Amino acid sequence: MNFFERQEASRRLSRRLVMLFALAVLAVIAAVNVVVFFVFSRAEENTTGYAPTFGDWAGAHSGTVLVTTLIVVGIIGLASLYKTLVLGGGGGVVARSLGGVRVSSDTTDPQQRRLLNVVEEMAIASGVPMPEVYLLEQEAGINAFAAGHNPSNAAIGVTRGTLTTLNRAELQGVIAHEFSHILNGDMKLNIRLMGLLFGLLVIALIGRTVLRLTSGGRDSKKAFPIMAVALAVLVIGYVGLFFGRLIQAAVSRSRESLADASAVQFTRDPTGLRGALIKIGALSGGSKIANPEVEEVAHMLFAPGMSRFFATHPALEDRLKAIDPRFDPKEFERARAELINAAEQAKKEVAPKPTSAERLESLIKIPGAAPAAVAALVGNPGTVHMQVARDIRKSLPEAIVAAGAHPDSARVLLLSLALDPNEDARERQKQFIAKQIGGQVAANVGELQCFVDALEPEQRMPALLRAFPALRQLTRDERMQLMSALNGMLQREGQVSLQSYVLRKLAQVQLRDDLSPSDRQRQLPLNVVQKDIQVLFSVLANHGSADAAAARRAYEAGVHHLLPRERPSFVNLAHWAQPLDLALSRLDQLAPIMKEQLVEALVKTVTHDQQLTLGESELLRAICATLHCPLPPLVNASE
Predict the structure, then answer these.
(1) CA distance linking residue 278 with residue 317, whole number of Å
(2) Which residue of 45, 254, 498, 516 is 20 to 30 Å from 269, comparing CA positions?
(3) DSSP letters of 167-197?
(4) Cβ-contact 122, 142 below 8 angstroms
(5) CA–CA separation, 231 vs 224, rounded Å?
């Protein structure tokens, strides 16, 4: 499956999960009502000598049945809502619950530095914001996880054992596996699973609490009915949770297999992921995590974090044979011996030779890119993209790297990247920043601007996306203020740079996703976004064409792909920024399959002259990113 098919499959699986959870809740409601019936019918039998059937009792006590049902639904619903709201803080909440400590971007620890480099390269190659990175310092097993609602508030956590035991290629394989979860929409599904299962767990916890409080009382005979009900509710809660865990395990196993396959595709080097899995099998501790909170996040982990009745992951040997059919289980013993022999000997990592800026540019220019081939790259970076990402990471100026490392300077960097190159527009924007956020911030933006202006086109989007872990450390009010400032910087009239506009829009989209991670459920069909298609493709065609005739041809090349029969005509918008803002927001609500056609059409418009320059490719990537279709750096396939 490609990215768009995986997104659609994730939506279907999410809907099916909700249905299965609803069935589990109905079963719990029915069981609790049976317990209530049993208690009340015994009381009536002692009083009247008549034992009613459940149907007769339910008909005569419909109010009791209704109240019992509402109480059970209320408890499960409120508990699930509470857990979901707690997890709304993003992946960092999950990481910290397991004892994770955020890895600082200016760390001097070589293992942590290597980890950040690998994650940053994967983020650049994937075209998504750099996630927060957490280290589970006390965990010696080899394990990792990705958590969050979307790429904008994602976090990746790794154990200390992962850093100390794996070499760079193996670490890259593990991180690629986790990025697959980020790109495929698995994180949102995992967070939803945690929230729903917590609702079922609370029923059991209530039964256990009541049982503990009543069991120590003096009048045990009077307390016996309450204890019996509490025991029954405890059993029912754990039975409900049992089926919930069953659903969780089934969902997790299928997504883990897909993530393994995607990781191999990302890196084109199966030996990295293969080596990591073999080392898990070779170590006595394997992938175990000691933190008691691991049960809740078992379905998120790279490998099983604990022993449990329902396996959340395919068997280790099955995963290895899927990667390498020639795998021999004896390799576990050989790897164990090698690890023992090399316990005190750290392997020296040979860094790849740096690539010059001219080499980078030659990699990214593509003559006549095939639209379907480019669309297939969305959410599917490969080895060459990882190599280019490493080159881009190393080429970023030190001033830009330093600016993205801390919350206040990251805010300045983001605002600097959003400034228009036109001097008059830029001056108005800086005045607005001073009014909205403060004169000192505006002054800092002016000081950083010379470094931002010197960035190459392929460096601008990575510089923006790598700053998001630091931006997430700003308070919610500060991030809301920053979003408001970005909106106010929109130049509604006059000459506007499309590249700066799209970077500003991308920053706003990522901040919004972090602040309001709820799913955009509404999906618009193509026929209601024709005006938005007209605006986007007209602006894009005008931007990349030398004259009106060429712009019209570029427009027709793309729009015909989306609307082959009746389509809106090309327009020349004098003030396009505000209409484009609305158009991109509405086009983001297309179904994943429709977005695939949209990306193909965008490529047709941009490459109507049979050339895709470096500037055009980066503009295309930024537009796709605002539509939540992360496109890796576009490289020449022959390279």
Answers:
(1) 9
(2) 254
(3) -HHHHHHHHHHHHHHHHHTHHHHHHHHHHHH
(4) no
(5) 10
- What is the torsional sign of CA 394, 395, 398, 401? negative
- Which of 498-502's residues contact partners 24+ apart within 8 Å by CB, and which partners? 498/539, 498/540, 498/543, 498/619, 499/457, 499/460, 499/615, 499/618, 499/619, 499/622, 500/417, 500/418, 500/419, 500/420, 500/421, 501/420, 501/577, 501/580, 502/619, 502/622, 502/623, 502/626
Q: Which of 584, 603, 578 is nearest to 524 (CA)?
A: 584
Query: How many Å apart are CA 478 and CA 472, to the nearest integer?
Result: 10
Q: Tell me the torsion sign for CA atoms 6, 11, 15, 17.
A: positive
Lowest mean pLDDT among 120-129, 203-212, 364-373: 364-373
The CA-atom distances, in angstroms, between 87 and each of 389, 485, 517, 581 are: 31, 27, 10, 30
CB-based contacts of 445, cutoff 8 Å, min separation 6: 412, 415, 416, 419, 430, 433
Q: How confident is the model at residue 153 (pLDDT cuts 50, 70, 90)?
A: confident
Residue spans of alpha helices (H) in 166-306: 168-184, 186-215, 220-267, 270-282
User: Would you say 612 and 366 are in contact if contact means Cβ atoms under 8 Å apart?
Assistant: yes
Together in a domain, 445 and 368: no
Planar angle of CA 132, 173, 347, nearest 5 degrees? 100
Dist. CA 392–CA 394, nearest whole Å: 5
Is there a single domain that holds both residue 198 and residue 308? no
Closest CA to 556 of 544, 567, 572, 545: 567
Q: What is the pTM of this model?
A: 0.76
Residue with tokens 């009900």: 229
**pLDDT per residue over 403-430, tens digit each?**
999 999 999 999 999 888 888 888 888 9
Phi, then psi, of 637 in degrees rounded to 5 = -60, -30
* Residues identified as active-site: 178
pLDDT for 531: 93
What number of residues does the chain have? 639
Structural domains of the chain, count: 4
Domain boundaries, position 220: 3-91+191-255
Closest CA to 513 of 10, 153, 123, 189: 153
Q: Using DSSP bridges, classify how beta strands 144-147 and 155-159 pair: parallel, antiparallel or unpaired.
A: antiparallel
Q: Are 416 and 448 in contact (CB under 8 A)?
A: yes
Structure tokens at 86: 């707690």
DSSP, collapsed to helix, strand or coil, labels residue 135 as strand
Cite the beta strand spans of 478-568 per DSSP E: none
611 with 587, same domain?
yes
Pick the last residue of a domain from 467, 482, 515. 515
Start-to-end C-alpha separation, the chain: 25
CA atoms within 13 A on the CB side of 613: 7
